[in-house]
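Lecture notes, unit on protein representations.

Consider one protein chain, 513 amino acids long.
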Amino acid sequence: MSKSKQTSLLVHGYEVVIGFETHAQLSTQSKIFSRASVAFGAEPNTQACAVDMALPGTLPVMNKGAVERAIQFGLAVGSHVAERSIFARKNYFYPDLPKGYQISQFEIPVVQGGEVSFFLGDEKKTVRLVRAHLEEDAGKSLHEDFHGQSGIDLNRAGTPLLEIVTEPDIRSSAEAVAYAKELHKIVTWIGICDGNMQEGSFRCDANVSVRKPGAPLGTRREIKNLNSFKFMQQAIDFEVRWQIEQIEDGYEIEQATVLFDPDTGETRAMRTKEDAADYRYFPDPDLPPLVIGRDWVEQVRADMPELPRDLERLYVEEYSLTPYMASQVVSTYAKALFFNSAVIQNGDTDAISAAQLDDPEFYKPFARRVAVWISGEISRVMNEEGGPDWQFWIDPVTLARIALREQEGVISGKAAKEIFDYIWKKGRDEKANAPPDLVDSLIESKNLKQIDNADELRSIVAEVISKNSDSVSQYKSGKEKAFNSLVGQIMKMTKGKANPTQVNSVLKEMLSL
């Protein structure tokens, strides 16, 4: 197992140490040990069968689909998939736990080790995984609209979960959020979880502690059920500040489970935190060991989609994207599919000639330009509109046409953005993508074509030189800023339509005369 390289990030002289436990609800149609439905939003207690309610005489039967999804995850993060794993009873008493214990895995989990790598800014980070194990969810206690009493909804009881546990490798709230987003991407990409945080399909618990650099690990407090990335960062930041203040005031941190209140922005203790011994784990006598043959693992591997890390490697090698740029393009499955369509399908149109397709000096910069559009403007408008990530209001080939005309120098970057904004808004308002040929029509109708006629450009440059003698003198005396001032005057006179590369070339040539 590779060691994670972590940069020490101190907060008021303390090092923050964070480990994560994430519960990913598996995308099966039925529960992990029964045939009851896991569909969200049903009336309370309408999806709880005799097995889920632990009625006398019922026995659990393992859901094969849940096991296959655990195998998929293990393969996706480079883990060891155990050939033999054991289910255990985790004993605790709570009203929404019908059996008085939860079926989980303890000593021998199905997925062991592995790692999750991601970028924080342009710095690559790696978080090591301890394990990922299968377990059943509990029911839900309802405390509202019961006239001072509580109700129990057992619809969730028995829902299949994969609990993913990390080493304490995370060193800041920003790093924690980046890790959680990457993990969310992986489980949704391979289709084992829908990732819906609002519905509880992807729930994160952050174990937070602080220590002086080089000191032993501090006492951790577990922030439970963080169901948004925004709240995750707020909760961790508050908890870190609170723990440091407590220590500085002379108090000891007590191990506890805490909840985050989004309204106050504070964490509050829910109960003292149990250790593994408190749960009195022992092998479940009703379930035999889970045996997974190598042939089953290889069959699951063969049926899996291409993984983000493999696509990143391909894009770096094939199109010379930087590792960071490649990671942005594959930040979601939808964006990766859009990039492939824009770069590859555009070669099936008459927009790019066969000669250009065969010329890496042309095609690689084109692919990089498309990647910049996807990670830049497209991500920006999606974030602003807050819509689903898969909703692109522009056709991939249309975006490729914009990038191509920009690369060819037909339009400037400013004009390209104007065309993009127009087509995106048109697509959103009309709920339909515009055809690729609209790009060239807009270039003509809006008079956005760059001035690339050498004679016309020389005339404009000559006029700017004659009207700005002071800037010319300053440039010739060695002041480079004066050159930029002249370029600005030329761009202003041409209303931004002059080709910047040609402007620089012609201006330098004429100033040297």
